[in-house]
Write a structure and sequence with these properties.
The complex is a heterodimer of chains A (about 425) and B (about 500).
Chain A lengths: L1 E5 L9 H10 L1 H14 L9 E6 H4 L11 E6 L10 E2 L11 H7 L4 E6 L1 H8 L18 E10 L9 H36 L5 H18 L11 E9 L3 E9 L6 H21 L4 E7 L3 E4 L1 H6 L8 H15 L5 E9 L7 H13 L5 E7 L6 H12 L3 E6 L5 H8 L6
Parallel strand pairs in A: 8-9, 8-11, 11-12, 12-13
Antiparallel strand pairs in A: 2-5, 6-7, 9-10
Helix pairs in contact in A: 6-7, 10-11, 11-12
Chain B lengths: L12 H17 L7 E6 L1 H9 L10 H15 L8 E4 L4 E6 L4 H21 L1 H6 L5 H19 L1 H13 L16 H23 L26 H8 L5 H22 L1 H21 L5 H15 L14 H17 L3 H6 L8 H11 L2 H8 L2 H7 L2 E6 L5 E5 L6 H11 L2 H4 L2 E7 L7 E6 L8 H15 L3 E6 L5 E7 L5 H4 L1
Parallel strand pairs in B: 1-3, 7-8
Antiparallel strand pairs in B: 2-3, 4-5, 6-7, 8-9
Helix pairs in contact in B: 1-4, 1-11, 2-3, 4-11, 6-7, 6-10, 7-10, 7-20, 8-10, 9-10, 11-12, 11-13, 13-15, 16-18
The chains are: A alpha/beta (about 425), B alpha/beta (about 500).
Chain lengths: ~425, ~500
């Protein structure tokens, strides 16, 4: 007797646990591959899966087994021309035998490569990153709630009816109430049939049975298809959610000295930062500011793709930041972050002004300020001015990005999770 | 019976049911005795899942299965590898997975192949009858999965993973080749497991006790005493029973890996036969369906196309040749047994006097029931199959400059080819012979394994060192591996941890 079971609707990802364990185990190697992959990607597809390669040797599971050497017999199919006693040259890839030197060289440098999904890729990519000094703040009067599913209830509003649950109950009830009548009906019909083989249907006995059957049928049809008691509603409960309010200012220099290569690096840096923030923090506001001699708040699209250019006055961007901070994020409930990218080229007289702005107006209000300088030939006045700021404020960080490959390490350093 | 079966490429459970009924009738006529069948239709995603746990329908969690999955997925996605059309599990009822992408013809073939071919093999081959317990395996796997998950919660995932890694390294040395295992049910297993923990630990304590409680017994604790008294080939068993420092739960996990290795042991010894047998039956059954006019020409064209692909044997000089195709060789031998029974030639009468002219169904069942790969080849490989496949024997000896052709498909060669092929199908030929020979119970508790070398074939050193390290994880005292040649002379010793004075010796 064969039983057919259609399992296609079942849970698919039985191996997910094992896959995750595998990734966990080779995290170091995989992360290395992931980091180096980012440098090679174009800006538009930085987000996506990745093929990761690990040396086969590192992940083989060892067993006792023979290697080439000694004496052995091989049976092969498809002989065309050989006769017993023929000598055949050894194929070149087979290592020639005795001695331990041969064995190591005989092994190929096989590689084990596999695909990481987009999710896995980004998880590994942003593993260990976080916004420093983030303070969870609750907005005094208006606590926020998240609504979560929590089982089923017997009361609720029509849009929440769980059809499957309700129908299941209805079915159970119909079976429970109807079975008794169905059995009786079947018995009576059997009796009637037997009776009719000998009698005709006018006999009083037959009439009685027919009437009884009709009564039962009526009872059966009067069991309601669905009843008030069957209905179940999906239940939702409200949970208090701690809110964090954070805003990240992204400031990018787009002046003439920032050539295509530098802009590319700056954009990559911000794209990674942007991905990291939108992925790991549900609610975060982003403010994009680009500047040459004047600064302008722009939207995401313009920030990454517009091609405006001009001279350089860094303080214009800081002024703009200050203005927006005051206008929109002045409440102490906001966690403010700033990331700035520039090639360090600034109008010399402007740098002291930047330092002043930062020290007096901006730094006291922000949680963290990260400055990256891209491909500097040599550090100029801006870098020196910022060193002055760094000495005064612990939450100020600055790094160089020297090439595309170092974007990820720098991002990683700047936003590394600190053990508390 | 001349009812037509459904045609076309599309199928549903009803059409499959119709085919299964027809195939069952034919199988019964050919006296195929099977377990009840449970056919599960699964998606390719699920097939990859099934793949990655080496065919266990329920497996404990381990990274190596994840690696396997990732690997299968990679090949599949790139289109380098088709998935197997089926996976069949030696259990009662016999579980077979059908891939949803298969066409109707393929599903019918797979039902005949797996559900009647493999299934009958599992139920009737002597190795399976002796060594596996299909009634209890699913329950046991469930027990194992839960037990290991429980251990992970109690003792930490890393701890358990390390232990499993070490056990897996010597999994192939976790089988009893001669002792027959007891058959247990899940309930008994659970009940026993508790009792066993306590008992095992007491036994181990007894062995490792350092204070003699009775001075009269002191003479037994002299250094002359050999432990174990006999060499032990089942390394996992030996470790489970005697490793000095394992915790009871660790012993239980060693036992679980050992039990699973034991369950797969018959499959490893009957790959050729099992596939040959199943292929023979899908071929015979589908042809019978055609003869009875239950399927039409279109069906047969597609079937023959699939069957020929499966049977394809690349010649040795093709760059992608991977040696003998077990489906081809197995099928050819079984098919030839049938031919010898029904239409014997003079040659057959000379080679197989007892087969020529006998009832082929009877003969073929006898062959399936009473042999494993090596003995099967030794008994049934006929000159005709050797000629058809143009088999030849190569000698690969590192003392010779070239490879030497020792025998080809001619009168002088048949017997040599048959004997040599039979020999290479013996697991002891492809796997090194390694046994526990000595434990230093009175000094450093070192464990000595002996590798009995054959034909001067060397072990792979780097893997060997790693395996020793794994054994050391289990044993926790020094481990030595001695290699002796055919004259029992010690030729090499490898140790873990590596002895410090090694550099001064060399």
């Amino acid at each position: 007797m064969t039983q057919f079971i259609d399992r296609r609707k079942n849970h698919k990802h039985k191996s997910t646990v094992n896959r995750q364990r595998f990734i966990q185990r080779y995290k170091k190697q995989i992360k290395h591959a992931v980091a180096s992959a980012v440098g090679k990607r174009s800006i538009t597809n930085i987000e996506g899966g990745e093929t990761v390669t690990i040396a086969e040797k590192e992940i083989t599971e060892p067993t006792f087994h023979y290697r080439q050497g000694g004496k052995r017999h091989i049976i092969l199919p498809g002989n065309k021309e050989f006769t017993p006693g023929d000598h055949i040259k050894r194929p070149p890839n087979v290592s020639k035998g005795a001695g331990s030197t041969a064995s190591n060289k005989g092994e190929g440098m096989d590689e084990f490569s596999f695909e990481l999904s987009k999710e896995e890729f980004l998880d590994l990519f942003f593993d260990d990153l976080e916004l420093p000094n983030l303070i969870r703040t609750r907005l005094g009067e208006t606590p926020s709630f998240i609504s979560r599913r929590a089982g089923y209830t017997t009361y609720g509003i029509p849009p929440n009816i769980s059809v499957i649950r309700s129908m299941r109950n209805a079915l159970a009830r119909r079976i429970a109430f109807g079975n008794k009548y169905k059995k009786q009906l079947a018995r009576i019909q059997a009796e009637l049939e037997e009776l009719l083989t000998t009698d005709n249907d006018d006999s009083p006995e037959a009439k009685r049975l027919i009437e009884e059957a009709q009564a039962l049928e009526h009872k059966l049809t009067s069991i309601p298809f669905i009843d008030e008691v069957d209905i179940r509603y999906k239940n939702r409960t409200k949970q208090l959610a701690p809110t964090t309010q954070a805003v990240m200012f992204c400031i990018m220099d787009v002046s003439g000295s920032m050539d295509e290569k530098k802009k590319e690096i700056a954009k990559r840096f911000f794209i990674l930062l942007y991905l990291f923030l939108t992925r790991n923090y549900e609610k975060i506001e982003l403010v994009f500011i680009r500047h040459h001699t004047t600064a302008k708040e722009v939207d995401e699209e313009e920030f990454f793709y517009s091609r405006e250019t001009g001279g350089t006055v860094v303080s214009s961007a800081l002024e703009e930041t200050k203005r927006i901070m005051q206008e929109r994020y002045s409440s102490p409930d906001w966690n403010i972050y700033i990331a700035q990218a520039s090639d360090g080229d600034n109008w010399n007289a402007d740098s002291p002004h930047c330092q002043e702005l930062l020290c007096n107006n901006i730094m006291p209000l922000v949680q963290y300020f990260a400055y990256v300088e891209i491909l500097p030939r040599h550090h100029q006045s801006l870098w020196r001015a910022y060193i002055g700021v760094k000495e005064l404020f612990k939450n100020f960080a600055m790094r160089n990005i020297n090439n595309v490959q170092s974007i990820y390490p720098v991002l990683h350093e700047l936003f590394k999770r600190k053990m508390s | 019976m001349t009812t037509k079966l459904p045609t076309g490429t599309e199928w549903d459970v009803n059409t499959l049911q119709a085919y299964d009924d027809a195939i069952a009738t034919i199988a019964k006529n050919y006296r195929l005795d099977t377990f009840p069948i449970q056919l599960e239709i699964i998606s390719s995603e699920q097939m990859m899942d099934a793949y990655s746990t080496i065919g266990m329908p329920l497996a404990y969690n381990h990274w190596s299965f994840g690696k396997q999955f990732v690997n299968v997925e990679k090949f599949y996605r790139r289109g380098l590898m088709g998935l197997a059309y089926e996976i069949v599990i030696n259990a009662n009822p016999c579980i077979a997975y059908l891939l949803e992408e298969n066409s109707l013809v393929m599903q019918a073939t797979v039902i005949a192949h797996a559900c009647y071919g493999h299934n009958a093999f599992f139920k009737n081959n002597y190795l399976f009858k002796t060594w596996t317990n299909p009634d209890a395996i699913i329950d046991y796997l469930l027990f194992a999965k839960n037990y290991i998950a429980e251990c992970e919660r109690k003792y930490g995932m890393n701890e358990v993973e390390e232990l499993l890694d070490s056990c897996h390294a010597i999994m192939n040395y976790g089988v009893d080749r001669y002792r027959r295992p007891q058959q247990l049910t899940l309930q008994e297993e659970k009940a026993r497991q508790k009792a066993r923990e306590a008992y095992l630990q007491s036994q181990v304590n007894e062995l490792w006790r350092t204070i003699p409680d009775d001075p009269n017994k002191a003479k037994f604790t002299t250094t002359d005493e050999q432990f174990p008294p006999e060499p032990e080939e089942n390394l996992l068993y030996f470790i489970e029973k005697n490793a000095p420092r394992l915790e009871p739960w660790q012993r239980e996990i060693v036992r679980i890996v050992r039990k699973i290795a034991q369950y797969f042991y018959p499959q490893r010894q009957t790959k050729l036969m099992n596939e040959g047998w199943a292929t023979f039956w899908h071929y015979t059954i589908i042809n019978t369906l055609y003869e009875q006019k239950q399927v039409d020409d279109t069906f047969m064209f597609e079937f023959m196309h699939n069957h020929t692909n499966l049977m394809h044997q690349l010649p040795f000089d093709d760059p992608s040749c991977q040696g003998l195709n077990p489906y081809t060789l197995g099928f050819n031998i079984f098919n030839d047994i049938k031919r010898i029974c029904t239409a014997p030639t003079e040659e057959d009468k000379h080679w197989f006097p007892e087969l020529a002219g006998s009832d082929w169904v009877e003969t073929i069942h006898f062959a399936m029931e009473n042999y494993k790969d090596d003995s099967f080849v030794g008994q049934y490989l006929s000159p005709k199959v050797i000629r058809d496949m143009k088999l030849f024997v190569l000698l690969d000896d590192d003392k010779q400059e070239d490879l030497i052709v020792e025998a080809i498909h001619n009168d002088q060669g048949y017997q040599t080819i048959r004997d040599t092929l039979a020999k290479t199908y013996n697991l002891s030929y492809s796997e090194p012979d390694i046994q526990v020979t000595r434990v230093n119970i009175h000094s450093d508790r070192a464990l000595t394994l002996t590798h009995q070398q054959h034909d001067r074939r060397p072990l792979d050193e780097s893997d060997c060192n790693e395996v020793l390290q794994h054994i050391h994880t289990l044993w926790q005292f020094p481990v030595h591996l001695e290699t002796t040649d055919e004259a029992d002379t010690l030729i090499n010793t490898v140790s873990y941890p590596r002895p410090r004075d090694e550099s001064t010796e060399t």
